[in-house]
Amino acid sequence: MALRINYNYSADFTLVNLNQTELQQNKSLERLSTGFRINRAADDAAGYFIANQLKQYAASLQQGTRNANDGISISQIAQGALKEVYNILVDIKSKVIQAANTSDDTSRGQIQQDINSLADAIAKIFKDTEFNGINLFSGAGPTTFTIHYGGRIGQELVMTTASATVQVGTGTNTPSTVAIGGTDYAIDVTSQTAANASVSTVDALIKAVDDMAAKFGSYQIELEKIISNNETARVNTSEAESRIRNVDMANEMANFTKLQILMQSGTAMLAQANAKNQLVLQLLR
Fold this sequence. Notes:
mainly alpha, single chain, Flagellin_C, structural molecule activity, 5 helices, secreted, 2 domains, CATH 1.20.1330.10
């Protein structure tokens, strides 16, 4: 057995292995404390890139779902307003039929005044129906909302509302006019002939309101399906990211325990290797 004073190969070799074990143990401890297998690009460059891509896509889907929920809110607000308008139009139709069955001009004038009051209520609904400060039934023209619901370019739903205005008549001899989507519906019961014609006019107006409500209902149905699909995709994407980024705690704990044992045995062996130099001293005595 060769004994040297200036160089102890066994101790040096053991120290190198001990340092490597300590480095691996520190990395294992980091993985256990963070729960991540990949904490930085150096841990797994390809895995780090893929996991980050999946993470940002899942975040985009989550924001897309929030946007779609905003779209549903717009649709529900519009449908609620149109339901109230529909109920008022039902009352207006009853009064139009009543006027058509009345031969007294004075009575028809009073009915016209009642209709004008109801038309004013419709005008207020159209004026006050808003989402985030934006009027849904602006008289200036259709209002467009673009709902970005996904994480890719082009994943959007365009919601368009119809313009709606009301010209409220005054007094007993001036009819009211409701305009929806550029079509005017004059509700005039000041004469027998006008009252008879207004029956079909109100029917057409009710249909126009129903069509608007149906369109918003279709938007809501589509957005609900989009949200369902988004959530499924988000969960699956997050799961894929987790499989790449996260650590298997059971396996990593077993690995950490193994490294602890190697550290203890390596430290003991380093002490044994250093003890060899003591033999040289004994020979020199």
